């Protein structure tokens, strides 16, 4: 008996999903024909469908059929309580507008955390613990925490296999006269293997300076790019060669923050234009075609978060005063590289996704379901 059939049988503790059809046919229909934004409604049809929607079986079948969609998740922090909550960007069925909907089954213990998407999961490394969130079932489980305390850290995934945690770590503790302990800090790289769920031995970089507060970090072509908040320098770490480099003045010339990568090109919005950096050409350009509309929409916003929204597409989140109150907008932009290398953008939608202005934007990530 195949593994997939065993999973179907495990689901079949309740009556058939559709009495006139075998469950495997029903699963194929739901996987191939029903859009993800209809899944919440479908889960209310019966207990059996609710169990199916929350089961890895459905999403595994979608993957086997080559049908995957990108879903955006957000971490918002309450300005009142400083507590963080996990949200999903949900497309409403009635008017096709986007909304941020809180995922109540997920509890984030700490307001300070690093979030990194890997496939259909989001890995969280915060001050208290480490966990992985399964976005197919909206459940979480604990994973081994970072073996050693780290400060000023950034977290990124390379090739959807290994998570790199880069920051300052205690490497030596020396006992001085009088019994006082003195800690020696070094720049370190910790690697978490998402397949084995184990941490690899720590790598120490002796000649990198400490105390760097990173304003942002992204991955392009298997390399980790980091932006220094205080001095504006950009660094790159090559995992394969375990090598650090200063980036050229071109990348340093822009204060990129809240950036994302789509097709190995870095994008960020500086409240004047949507800008793109191509590491192969080592040059910045402005995304054409958006005109004054996006500038008007983001006017008086403090800053924007960009997130990959699938193939040749990104989503831009920003605060703005709307009808007398502060809200969070989401603009979905389709990208196209034309002959000559110019990048053009087309606004597909721009919606108010959160009407409660008492939340700060912490992080946005995209998973594949």
Automatic annotation (TrEMBL):
Q: Domain F-box: where? A: 19-60
Q: Where is the FKB95-like N-terminal Kelch domain?
A: 87-353
> Could you tell me which CDD domains the record lists for this protein?
F-box_AtAFR-like
Output the Gene3D superfamilies linked to this UniProt entry: Kelch-type beta propeller
Which Pfam family, an example, fits this chain? Answer: Kelch_FKB95
Q: Which PANTHER family match?
A: F-BOX DOMAIN-CONTAINING PROTEIN, F-BOX/KELCH-REPEAT PROTEIN SKIP4
* Full protein name: F-box domain-containing protein
